[in-house]
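Slide 14.
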Amino acid sequence: MPRAHPERDIQIKVASFLALMEMRGHLTYFHPPNGGSRGAREGANFKRMGVRAGVPDLCIMWVGGYGFIELKAPKGKLSKNQREYHGTLEKHGAQVRTASSLSEVKESLETWGCPGLPF
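Slide 15: predicted structure.
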């Protein structure tokens, strides 16, 4: 039986929604590809290039604002690195939320004042 990937499935739904919002001119976004399996040499190179443990899954920007979203499966928990780095982002004025559904992402964007919502 194939293994379930709930966080990946949520991220694909959210990215599809964000792509539509971007196409309508409301925002832009990206996913820093921090995850995945890497060998020790490649991991060390990525670290020297600025890859940071705990960086949220999505950075979303619009005119006048930005925010970071960490996507988790419904019962998922933040790692220690994620909690620490999210705190660092917040200390520097960033908006950071953890979400486990597209509706939670939409709520965050609306709360943050992202244009084009509700959608």
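Speaker note: The mean pLDDT is 92.
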